[in-house]
Amino acid sequence: xxxxxxxxxxxxxxxxxxxxxxxxxxxxxxxxxxxxxxxxxxxxxxxxxxxxxxxxxxxxxxxxxxxxxxxxxxxxxxxxxxxxxxxxxxxxxxxxxxxxxxxxxxxxxxxxxxxxxxxxxxxxxxxxxxxxxxxxxxxxxxxxxxxxxxxxxxxxxxxxxxxxxxxxxxxxxxxxxxxxxxxxxxxxxxxxxxxxxxxxxxxxxxxxxxxxxxxxxxxxxxxxxxxxxxxxxxxxxxxxxxxxxxxxxxxxxxxxxxxxxxxxxxxxxxxxxxxxxxxxxxxxxxxxxxxxxxxxxxxxxxxxxxxxxxxxxxxxxxxxxxxxxxxxxxxxxxxxxxxxxxxxxxxxxxxxxxxxxxxxxxxxx
Length: 365
Ligand SMILES: [Zn+2]
Hints:
Number of strands: 18
Radius of gyration: 22 Å
Order of helices and strands: HHEEHEEEEEHEHEEEHEEEEHEHEEH
Shape: globular
Largest sheet: 9 strands, mixed
CATH architecture of the largest domain: 3-Layer(aba) Sandwich
Bound molecules: zinc ion
Strand content: 25-35%
Number of helices: 9
CATH superfamily of the largest domain: Zn peptidases
């Protein structure tokens, strides 16, 4: 049973916000449109924010006045002493870039972030040209039709360098035809977010990390509506470079702790569960800060939140790691909803988002 003073989780708002966020293509590096949308949502919610020169949005939430500090949590006093906390979720997505235009008018592509060919062949895409045009297409195997492909080619693993390309939805036969559409080396290619929602399950390519960003915004909405203030100054940091490792390598000078809210990949050796929130003990880089992680665990236990502890190896790290490696003397921790098929066709559950929301609310308020 969650604490009765936790703000309610507005699942409808969270879902609608997630749908707004995935409606915008934001392959890492192509940040302008998602940044504008984030600012628009923050304006609607009524929060001040700063925009980073490289791309990124940091909203600011003032702490409760000492006089009206949270009576029961006992956190306001200690929180006042320990500086500001940054809570981050990222709004960049993995995707592709045009490496070169092939002689037959198809596109040779390379990944932006950790996108693997076996997890994206057959996906529809949108190529964003220098001139601002969008040309659609599909990620295909070469050769593409199974019926006319020799056996040894059928069993070869897909590889962006040799046997995977993007075929445009245009009658192009030569490189010149494709260039005439404005497509050129360096153009960003976004994958179709392919959203569905059924029985509480959210499926999309970009649960990571737009679902967690929607959780942060849902909490901000509830706090604004109910007049709730955090125990300490809180930055809600919408980072735009997590997938390539430097989303939160800049921090405001008064930040003492960073909490990343990001997907908790499920797997055969994982505790993570799509209906729960995971507290990260360690990822493939190093353990999370022991004290801060224990605080989150204590918070989850006392608030009755359905959580698990988990460790993510060998291929995972969050933006909180990036802040530590940037040289800040801060504590770092991470939490997030259990998420299946990470960096593929991802799936989580509304209960996992709710548990993430409640842990975040219980820790901050
Ligand atoms: Zn992520």
